[in-house]
């Protein structure tokens, strides 16, 4: 129960400050887009570095479950907590900042008439890269602070690159919260399907590369990576039949 509570608090903080920054840019033009990305990066780094392991993202939770790092039975409750925390964060943003109906701080393709193909591809590829980074640092011996900085920097950098086209979500919770609160579901499928598909692809790529590295190490006489096969979010001994 404590882990679930921490997941909710961490997701709330991430979505709240991300939306505040986006709304500040929308309402007052007080922040540039790179500054918004920096706020998001610092928030993710702070939350993960301070609170420790948290998914913050339904696509991450689903990917961990698909690769047997997270129990399937806990998936619905975690995803509901993440989305609920996102909605609560957006309601809090609205209560504090009182945006107009046209001050939508969700994620939509830019410009809206540009179509869905490019935003979908960018969200998918960025989510894959993000999962590769997450799975890499999750299996390292780095401290919470280093893990937070690595993931936060990745989120901020990817957002800076793809944001002008797709909004830079990579997170269904970040997109669903504003969509539910404002009742605007235009192209919302992009921000649900692309992150999930991208992170599954990223995890599969990471697993394939790590296992290939272990095989090469074994063939070279048991050196290097031969002693471990790293799977998304965990490491297992590279002996036959080990799980």
Automatic annotation (TrEMBL):
Main location: membrane
GO molecular function term, any single one: channel activity
Keywords recorded for this protein, A-Z: Membrane, Repeat, Signal, Transmembrane, Transmembrane helix, Transport
Topology term for the membrane: Multi-pass membrane protein
GO cellular component terms given for this protein: membrane
Similarity-based family: Belongs to the MIP/aquaporin (TC 1.A.8) family.
Protein name: Aquaporin
Record organism: Triticum turgidum subsp. durum (Durum wheat)
């Amino acid at each position: 129960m404590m882990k679930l509570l921490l997941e909710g608090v961490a997701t709330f903080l991430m979505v709240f400050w991300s939306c505040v920054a986006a709304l500040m840019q929308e309402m007052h033009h007080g922040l540039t887009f790179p500054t918004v990305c920096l706020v998001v990066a610092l928030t993710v780094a702070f939350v993960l570095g301070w609170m420790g392991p948290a998914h913050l993202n339904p696509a991450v939770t689903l990917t961990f479950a698909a690769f047997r790092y997270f129990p399937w039975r806990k998936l619905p409750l975690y995803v509901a907590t993440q989305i609920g925390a996102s909605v609560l964060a957006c309601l809090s943003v609205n209560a504090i900042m009182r945006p107009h109906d046209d001050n939508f701080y969700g994620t939509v393709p830019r410009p809206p008439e540009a179509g869905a193909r490019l935003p979908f591809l960018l969200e998918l590829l960025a989510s894959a890269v993000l999962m590769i980074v997450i799975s890499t640092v999750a299996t390292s011996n780095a401290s919470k602070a280093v893990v937070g900085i690595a993931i936060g920097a990745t989120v901020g950098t990817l957002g800076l690159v793809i944001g002008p086209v797709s909004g830079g979500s990579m997170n269904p919770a970040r997109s669903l919260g504003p969509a539910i609160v404002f009742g605007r579901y235009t192209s919302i499928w992009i921000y649900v399907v692309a992150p999930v598909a991208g992170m599954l692809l990223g995890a599969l790529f990471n697993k394939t590369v790590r296992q290939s590295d272990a095989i090469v190490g074994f063939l070279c006489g048991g050196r290097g990576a031969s002693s471990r096969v790293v799977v998304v979010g965990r490491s297992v001994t590279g002996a036959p039949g080990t799980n």
